[in-house]
Amino acid sequence: MKSVHLRLVAVALTMLLVVSAAAAQTSKHDSQLKTVRGVVLDKSDNPIPNGVVFLKNTRNNQVRSYIADNEGNFRFSGLDPNADYELHAEKDGAKSQVRNVSSFDSRLDIVLNLKLEKKKS
């Protein structure tokens, strides 16, 4: 009876170690995810509210969008550190230049401001 109890304790401890290792791995992976944030600006560096910011993963062509807040702020989090991204903003026919975020950039918090240019006639 004593050996059965010891086996149960050993199995329980092994399961606890496996669960703890998996949780640590998930936490490590989550801590490596990137964030890209910034402000949508006009040509005079004034914030533009409600501009639409597009983020494209160039590996799988998935596009995410974000509507900037009233101060022009945008934020994309949970980004794959091994992917490259293209980022630009649009509002009322004006568009910013495309900015790139490289997988070789080791920063986890990247700040990129996007300046809108008037639509060409």
Identify the CATH homologous superfamily of the largest domain.
Carboxypeptidase-like, regulatory domain
| CATH architecture assignment name of the largest domain | Sandwich
Q: What is the beta-strand fraction?
A: 35-45%
Series of H and E elements:
HEEEEEEEEE
Could you describe the largest sheet, including whether it forms a barrel?
Answer: 9 strands, mixed
* Rg (C-alpha, Å): 23 Å
The name of the CATH topology of the largest domain is Immunoglobulin-like
Per DSSP, the total helix count is 1
> Overall mean pLDDT score?
85
Kindly give the count of domains: 2
Low-pLDDT ranges? none
Chain oligomer state: single chain
Q: What sort of overall outline do the alpha carbons produce when their principal axes are compared?
A: elongated
Classification by helices and strands: alpha+beta
Distance between the first and last residues' Cα: 87 Å
- Helix content range: 10-25%
CATH class of the largest domain: Mainly Beta
Count every beta strand, where a strand is a DSSP E run of 2 or more residues: 9
Secondary-structure topology with pairs:
Elements: H1 2-31, E1 34-41, E2 52-57, E3 63-67, E4 73-79, E5 85-91, E6 94-96, E7 99-101, E8 109-111, E9 114-117
Keywords:
alpha+beta, 1 helix, Immunoglobulin-like, 9-stranded mixed beta sheet, 121 residues, 9 strands, elongated, 38% strand, 2 domains
What would you say this structure looks like, in words?
- The protein has 121 residues and is of the alpha+beta class.
- The chain has two domains: 1-31; 34-117, Sandwich (Immunoglobulin-like), CATH 2.60.40.1120.
- 25% of the residues lie in helices and 38% in strands.
- The chain has one helix and nine strands; from the N terminus they run αβββββββββ.
- The protein has one helix at residues 2-31, and strands at 34-41, 52-57, 63-67, 73-79, 85-91, 94-96, 99-101, 109-111, 114-117.
- Strands 1, 2, 3, 4, 5, 6, 7, 8 and 9 form a nine-stranded mixed β-sheet that branches.
- A hairpin with a 5-residue loop joins strand 2 (52-57) and strand 3.
- The protein is elongated, with a radius of gyration of 23 Å.
- The model has no long low-confidence stretch (mean pLDDT 85).
